[in-house]
From TrEMBL:
Residues 458-712 form the EAL domain. Pfam families: EAL, GGDEF, PAS_4, PAS_7. One of its GO terms (molecular function) is cyclic-guanylate-specific phosphodiesterase activity. It catalyses: 3',3'-c-di-GMP + H2O = 5'-phosphoguanylyl(3'->5')guanosine + H(+). Gene3D superfamilies: 3.30.70.270, EAL domain, PAS domain. This is PAS domain S-box-containing protein/diguanylate cyclase (GGDEF)-like protein. Residues 227-279 form the PAC domain.
């Protein structure tokens, strides 16, 4: 046998050499101990050595090998048996080519083949020093089988993802896509958008807010599997589709989550089927409004919600007058077009959070929630919306070049709580609608006669107020504000209405009506102009030149974008000193858009105007924003002054307000001082300014003046009575 060195895996070569040299281990024993087939060729390609395993693994007959055959003969034999496929002479040529190449390169030649009996063998040929080659064969059948199974499994997996609507994905431990496979992925071209990003980093139509991803992110953070997490996405081509992903964590040997894998499924078809079912079950096909069943559900929800909020809600029942005539005269298609137009108008006439439904035929319903905690205020608002609806519905609709017009009869009922059924509420509104029909159609009626009376009264008051303003029935009264010596140092302007038949109407009655109708804007502007006129006149009167004049503001005035300019102009036109003008606000007014309010107040304060916070202690005063406002005065509400002498709580509140004002460097006016005792106690507490009947009731500051033309004029809508009458 040719002399060469063997290195066996797991046996140090020096130790093996030594064992062979010392004769303790023959090379033959050594080679036979191997689990690998071993064949040695001399320089002519003759088999000069082999181990037992070679006969077994290569399934070569011992007689052949014992003859020391040339490799050519062995190849012919193997080809004849079918272990090697192809023409034997060409196979021999190939074998020699590789033998020479290994010698020339010094690199082993590794190859594999499958025998006729089905074994997969891997052979490695190395050139040995002095000529000749050693060939080592390893049976890799199991490994090859495992690989084939793996390939099969991959193929099956590929078929699955190619033929189905599902696709496969993998994420890293942070939830970023690392692999996406499947026909859908390819066809939709979504891989570039997703790879390297987490699902929540890719915009989704149904999950616009970070909290919408919480269930998925929690599962990822906690290493939990998740199922059918639905996401709506927009494709690069603009189409939207829905898919659902399910996944499970991939763990390492130590059980740590090292990533995620799962499937995605296109569920667009199911979603659209669901949407259709939903639409058919809950929506009216013709108009897209809620149908009777869905509307009744909403009504029940509104009842439950009114219990929680303590607010009244209203149900409006709308029936089109003589709708049948339209159908008869112009056909059903025209009638349908008119109903669709009505539905759109109803939707446009109410707030987004209100609900509109169609019960069938020409019957529509509108649900108005959170109207007001007081039923009369709620009724007033419901009446306002009903009137708006009445106006918009009767506008002509053009259908097939015809101007179609219908009027609505509207019934309203208010509700709060869950004591009655939704059907009862609907029944009441329906009955009220019949009253509207009976009242001559194209009208609004309440179910409850007292509600009806209230809204009619308010509508009348509003109309009369507008006339009263025009006819000079309003005038300014003033109530003195005094110092510790009971000397007048200021006046508060208080509006009065001398109604021709009702007498003196208190502002508590007509200011809310003016606020709701928008009439407060020209009215408030007029008060400001008159007040500035008074200040300018007082400037020439030594007794009054030092007085300030306090004017009450409404929330709506303050919200006017040009409010600062309006005040500036009033001062300028009257030639009044801004430092003598004080504007009184209540806490609730300040809650609306605090930043805008502060900006306006600061702009006015820069002119020298002072601000007082009225009715202090009755609202939700937050000291945080109180500090930010340019206030110079707090007014202790008269409810605390009234029982000051008998109720220790009220006394404590008055004292606290005085201390607070001192630390905020503000004045305090105690309102509603009616007795000398109250005056004394407040003075002892450190109060320096007082207002109340004890010092003087409101008295006229000037004769009544008609409202002159103002920049805003009367550009306000006056709501008519239930049966409209010209204003
Ligand atoms: N936006 C505007 N609001 C105005 C205007 N004019 C008045 N008002 C607001 O109307 C509310 C009612 O005012 P009024 O009926 O005039 O009542 C005032 C006083 O008469 C009353 N008062 C004063 N002293 C006493 C008293 O000793 N006892 C007692 N029972 N009542 C008294 O208090 C009212 C003044 O309160 P206040 O405004 O809080 O300082 C009233 O809330 C006005 O804000 C206007 O032009 N615009």
């Amino acid at each position: 046998m040719t002399d060469f060195t063997v290195t066996l895996p797991g046996v140090a070569s020096a130790a093996a050499d030594e064992a062979v040299r010392s004769g303790r281990l023959s090379v033959a024993q050594l080679l036979d101990a191997l689990q690998h087939a071993f064949v040695v060729l001399d320089a002519q390609g003759r088999v000069v050595g082999y181990n037992t395993c070679a006969l077994q693994m290569l399934e070569l007959p011992a007689e052949l090998m014992q003859r020391a055959p040339l490799i050519d003969d062995v190849v012919r034999w193997q080809a004849a048996r079918g272990d090697l496929k192809g023409d034997p002479e060409r196979l021999i040529e190939r074998v020699w080519h590789h033998l020479r190449a290994t010698r020339a390169s010094g690199q082993p030649h590794v190859y594999s083949y499958t025998t006729a009996s089905g074994r997969t063998l891997q052979g490695a040929t190395v050139a040995v020093p002095g000529g000749g080659w050693a060939r080592v064969y390893t049976d890799i059948s199991r490994h090859a089988q495992a690989l084939a199974q793996l390939r099969d499994s991959e193929e099956r997996f590929r078929s699955l993802t190619e033929l189905s609507a599902d696709w496969y994905w993998e994420w890293d431990a942070q939830g970023r896509y690392t692999r996406l496979e499947g026909r859908v992925v390819r066809e939709q071209g979504i891989a570039p958008t997703f790879m390297g990003r987490t699902p929540w980093e890719v915009p989704a139509a149904n999950r616009p807010k970070p909290e919408d991803w919480k269930p998925l992110r929690d599962a990822v953070a906690q290493g939990r599997p998740f199922k059918r997490f639905e996401i709506q996405r927009t494709l690069p081509d603009g189409r939207t589709y829905w898919f659902a992903i399910s996944g499970e964590p991939v763990r390492d040997a130590a059980g740590r989550c090292v990533g995620w894998r799962g499937i995605g499924r296109d569920v667009t078809a199911r979603k659209s089927a669901e949407a259709t079912i939903q639409r058919l079950a809950y929506y009216d096909d013709l108009t897209g409004l809620l149908n009777r069943r869905a509307f009744q559900d909403r009504l029940r929800q509104a009842q439950a919600s009114s219990v929680r909020s303590g607010q009244w809600a209203a149900l409006l029942f709308i029936d089109l007058d003589d709708f049948k005539d339209v159908n008869d005269a112009y056909g059903h298609a025209a009638g349908d077009a008119l109903l669709r137009a009505c539905a759109e108008r109803l939707r446009a006439a109410v707030r987004a959070e209100d609900t509109v439904g169609r019960l069938g035929g020409d019957e529509f319903v509108v649900l108005l929630e959170d109207l007001h905690a007081q039923p009369d205020q709620a009724a007033w608002r419901a009446q306002h919306v009903a009137e708006k609806i009445r106006q918009v519905v009767q506008q002509p609709v053009v259908v097939d070049a015809h101007d179609l017009t219908v009027t609505p009869s509207i019934g309203i009922t208010l509700f709060a709580g869950q004591d009655e059924s939704a059907a009862d509420i609907l029944g009441r509104a329906d009955l009220a609608m019949y009253h509207s029909k009976a009242a001559g159609r194209n009208a609004v009626q309440f179910f409850d006669p007292s509600m009806q009376a209230t809204v009619v009264q308010r509508a009348t008051l509003q109309r009369e107020l507008r006339h009263g303003l025009r006819d000079g029935e309003l005038c300014l009264y003033g109530q003195p504000i005094v110092d510790v010596r009971a000397q007048v140092c200021a006046q508060e302007v208080l509006l009065r209405w001398h109604h021709p038949t009702r007498g003196l109407v208190p502002p508590g009655e007509f200011i809310p009506v003016a606020e709701q109708s928008g009439l407060i804007i020209p009215l408030g502007q007029w008060v400001l102009q008159r007040a500035c006129g008074l200040l300018a006149a007082w400037a020439h009167d030594p007794q009054r030149a030092g007085w300030t004049l306090a004017v009450n503001l409404s929330a709506r005035q303050l919200r006017q974008p040009d409010f600062v300019d309006t005040v500036r102009r009033a001062l300028h036109e009257a030639g009044a000193d801004a430092r003598r003008l004080k504007l009184e606000l209540t806490e609730s007014q300040l809650l609306h858009d605090v930043e805008d309010t502060i900006a306006k107040m600061e702009a006015l304060a820069a002119l020298g105007i002072q601000f007082a916070l009225d009715d202090f202690g009755t609202g939700y005063s937050s000291l945080a924003y109180l500090k930010r406002l340019p206030l110079t005065q707090l007014k202790i509400d008269r409810s605390f002054v009234r029982d000051l002498l008998t109720d220790p709580n009220d006394a404590a509140i008055a004292r606290t307000i005085l201390q607070l004002a001192q630390s905020l460097e503000m004045d305090v006016v105690a309102e509603g001082v009616e007795t000398a005792e109250q005056f004394e106690v407040l003075r002892a507490m450190g109060c320096r300014l007082f207002q109340g009947y004890h010092f003087g009731r409101p008295v006229p500051l000037e004769p009544a003046q008609p409202l002159g033309p103002t920049p805003t004029g009367f550009g306000v809508t006056i709501i008519g009575a239930a049966s409209p009458s010209p204003a």
